[in-house]
Batch of 3 targets.
Target 1
Amino acid sequence: MNVHAMSVGQTDVKSKGAVGGAGTRRRWSMPQTVVADPKKVGQRIKDLRNASSQTQADVAEAIGIARSTYAELENGTGGVSIESILAIADYFKVPLDWLLIRTPPPDGPLVGYFVDHPGEIAWIELLRGMGPDERNAMLAMLRRGTSGRY
């Protein structure tokens, strides 16, 4: 197999076709800067799987990859294909940036925050269920503090 660099993240792979003859296919891989720490990303993937009470084989089958490939993703030791990462994010219904433990660029616009703590999610759901007057009253109360009263 001959691999020739094409551009950032793209390689041209020359291989023998399944039925003889040579074929060329393009394979994309993530630049190193996209995944800050593959082990941390793998742990996040493993935590998602464990929280859903599934096996590696269950998730691998659902997203269409081999269990051994999925295990490498969880261990942070395998090559990361964008297709696999997208499939995992879609399967667990989590934002891709959250899954990859990315932070917004320092000078970039911050469109939103990632919320992954159940307590914060509960607060957001509470606020979304309130009307504008209730929200303003709650915000004013929180800014004043409880003054030791419950």
Target 2
Amino acid sequence: MTTTQKTEVALLDSGATENFIHPQTIEQLRLPIRKLREAQIIYNIDGTPNRAGSITHKCQLKLFFGKESKQMDFFVTDLGQDNIVLGFPFLQEFNPTINWTAKTIEPEQRIKILPVHLAEHRWRVWKKDHKLLPPCWRLRKVSFAQKWAAVADKLKTKLKEDGVPHKYRRHQEVFSEKGAERLPPLRNENMAITFKEGAPEQLDCHVYPLSKRELEVL
């Protein structure tokens, strides 16, 4: 059980329209894949086609999260440094409780998976690893642990005052956080409006009420 159990890190992304998995992860975990009837084109946020090209295959997995289990599709594509992306379909199906402060997900921190095509999965393990898995799916569970963007944020370099060039330091009050909390000083009003000769002292303004339909348009 210890020799066959594997753990992979997954990115939890509510902006992803589907669940995705990296081709290298497919190979490492010996997961079966199925070809799509029609290739799916991936677009970036700016509308340009993704350099990874079209998606041609998917991996069907059964996910076990808490007391629930769901069968879901994971589309195979190059994810760069990420192995698996749990997108909006996962969040919609399981509706997990996410504590952003504590960086935890409930009811469990791990999501166990089982290949839908288990016989083919067992054959791949035997062919690649020369291991014959016992007829028990628990020996081939894979756990996905969530990865938090806050970890990456800690690695970013923060600009300090000593690193600002001298010619720009005279503007430091403009970008001061403490300075932004203060209100501007109180000054006398000096915005008098000079009227032209013959202008009325008072303007007779009429109020024209709008209909409900006109308010909806506005």
Target 3
Amino acid sequence: MAGLACEIYHKAGAEATLALAGTSGPDCQVWITRQQLMGLRCLPMSSGLRDLRVWQEAVALAADVVRAVRPSIRRETKVVSDAIMTTALSVASHIADGFARPSAAEQRESYLAAKRALLRLESEMAVARQAELFPAGSFGDITARGGQVSRLLTGYLVYLDRQITERDGAGPSPMPSTAPNVTTRDSARVPA
């Protein structure tokens, strides 16, 4: 019974205690942790944010931006480099903030702030690229990842808009009819 553990993140062994669930026999033994003995419940760690695909992509985008900008930081361009890195970090931060909000309207505001930060990042990167502060090789990869984050954010915003509309009693809004091969603004920007 040495390999048993409480939930996912607690350790077994010295921290686990043998409890007698029945009167006798080896089938009546159950391993429990010290926290359970003290009456504390072992809840699994909340990994909801870490499971959120848009947050994962935004964190990867921020890491890519920092890795691309960091080698070219010089004293005379530090303000631009810091602004780009701060904006990249704010995209993931706004998504995390939206995840923590209790209502759909508050979540929508945070996700809209993330979308605005993403557009600001795109603009700052374009300026840095024109000023040759951003390496050309990583620019395309980072722009593609930014497009992926944008599409995911748009999906979340559409979902939240539907929730808000349904909650307000108007019922689900009919989807606009479009031809199957019509290119939208988002689909034209980055290939699927």
